[in-house]
């Protein structure tokens, strides 16, 4: 009797998970249409998604808790909702482990009526290592399984701003790009390994950012496989020393072989930045070499901080480059961190940030 009840309850749980939670059953059908231009949004949870500019959004990667309401709404707007996929690299060297992981993710996507998966593995590895080959096989196997089991589904893979072993992520970028539907290029955190002067700099300097895409394209990766990721956040750096020229010297925090990194700072949302910049010591400043805004402020202990971030002026030329280079689209980390309140200034700032994704 116990086994019968256990078996029955298991069936009930599976069935309940696959019951469409939407008011209209057709909203549980996976999205199959391809858009000519991707606007790719990472969502980390909560309900701010209700205020996104859904006239633009094509794909949402759900990095927060599963939200059936978000799935139904995204589908009502013709947008995909995709899973997050992450795994410890040594685990996938074993083929059986890879197969089990892929099967689990496909079944989860089916049960939640999702439209694919975003594979976010940002771990270090050496070129030619067992993990190097296993990761490529994982992406290939995931894409094949999703396309077979969920027709029209999308498999994407997150990569650093350059293919040149950034943060020791020495992946087979060419093979991975060929194996999946798109690469989401994280064109931010570009100061994760500072080899020169340990000073505060832009999160995503324009020239360096665009050079990263030239490097991907030089590998003969199809530009239609590349989605440019831009930051909707910045870094707040405490200055060990602040020069007369406005240079902020940082504490040395090593990262993956580099003596200095952006880990000396704290990530701050665009929402927070907009509340601080006008009342800061300097007000908004512009670095014409890096094509990025920043400002200086003094904390309660009297220490000077320098904050580097992106805003519409710095994002617009990047968005223009998406079109001129023929890339698949643009997206951001992350959609939740604008101010979606009804305050008029906030509404205007938020609208302009969304519009900046389409270029100048």
Which key phrases capture this entry?
single chain, 360 residues, alpha/beta, TIM Barrel, 8-stranded parallel beta barrel, 9 helices, glycosidase, signal
Shape: globular
> Structural class of the secondary elements?
alpha/beta
Rg value: 22 Å
CATH fold-level name: TIM Barrel
Strand order of the largest sheet: 1-2-3-4-5-6-7-15
Largest beta sheet, briefly? 8 strands, parallel, barrel
Q: How many discrete structural domains? A: 1
InterPro entries: Chitinase_II/V-like_cat, Chitinase_insertion_sf, DIAC_cat, GH, GH18_Domain-Containing, Glyco_hydro18_cat, Glyco_hydro_18_chit_AS, ZP_dom
Family: Belongs to the glycosyl hydrolase 18 family.
Protein name: Di-N-acetylchitobiase
GO molecular function: chitin binding; chitinase activity
Q: Can you offer a commentary on this structure?
A:
The protein has nine helices and 15 strands. The protein starts with a helix and ends with a helix. It is of the alpha/beta class and 360 residues long. It has one domain: Glycosidases (TIM Barrel, Alpha-Beta Barrel), CATH 3.20.20. Involved in the degradation of asparagine-linked glycoproteins. Hydrolyze of N-acetyl-beta-D-glucosamine (1-4)N-acetylglucosamine chitobiose core from the reducing end of the bond, it requires prior cleavage by glycosylasparaginase.
Summed up, what is this model?
This protein is an alpha/beta fold. The chain has a single domain, classed as Glycosidases (TIM Barrel, Alpha-Beta Barrel), CATH 3.20.20. It has helices at residues 2-17, 68-76, 95-111, 130-149, 173-179, 206-218, 270-276, 312-324, 344-356; strands at residues 38-43, 59-62, 80-85, 116-119, 154-160, 182-186, 226-231, 233-238, 241-242, 248-249, 266-269, 285-287, 292-298, 304-308, 329-333.
